[in-house]
Amino acid sequence: EYRAPRGKQPVVTVDGRFVVFAVAPLKADVDKAKKDKKKPEEQPKSGLGIMNLANGEVTTVDRVKSFKVPEESGAYVAYLMEPPLKTPEEKKAEEKKEEVKKAPEAKKEEPKKEEPKDEKKKEEKKKEPGTDFVIRELASGRETNVAEVVEYAWNKPGTRLAYGVSSKTPANDGAFLWEAATGKSLELLKGLGNYKGFAFDEKGSQLAFTTDRDDYKADKSASKLYYWAAPAASALELAPAFAKTFPSGMAVSENGKLAFSKDGGRLFFGISAAPKPEPKDAPEPVKVDIWSSKD
Question: Bigger pLDDT: 93 or 248?
Fold first, then answer.
């Protein structure tokens, strides 16, 4: 019998050689962080555990956000890291910025001319960058590291892994496909935007995902459905481009679940009303603070 402290959500690989599981943080550390009123990102996070069932040896990794094991392969595990903790220097710089914002004005400035309502400054879209991503070969421990990943999905055989990148450098955003046979990634689509909903067919040779890349610079960007099939070198737009009966005024839903039929001959996706920009005379949004009994 082998045991691992604080292990949860175990997944046994299909070949029965490994157990991959989440490792909960120590309760005492969590309670102390809450008592010290640390920010959520600074509080203890779950980790990852990998147990070799041949000898009970456990490998652990701290601060892991999620992990996935292929359904029909015991060769790999992929996991996404939590954002790195800020260094003391970064914390000090952040505190100084906050102090400058809160500091009262020493001198009253001349009143600024109000801009006409129809000339409001356009707010820049905020897109959170991804975090470090690791593809680990379980038997050898060899790892492939990818930066700034936000979402990922294995195909059932474990031969391909799709992932989306959200980068601090907009040109690096994109959808990519990692091939286990070569250990290399194929660039399916690239450009500033969000890449979501990766879904493979049963055989693992077809892939679908959504992205707002082509409309990202709009106030409210609409998503499109993209498709890839082996051995293509890149993904192509499927809807609305090739949807002959696509409803007017509708768009591909960024939150809809993508799914192939059992035989891979059909692809199901959600649609929703096409996003519309806010009217120029729309009132300013009201800012509120939300508290719970745990705060």
Answer: 248
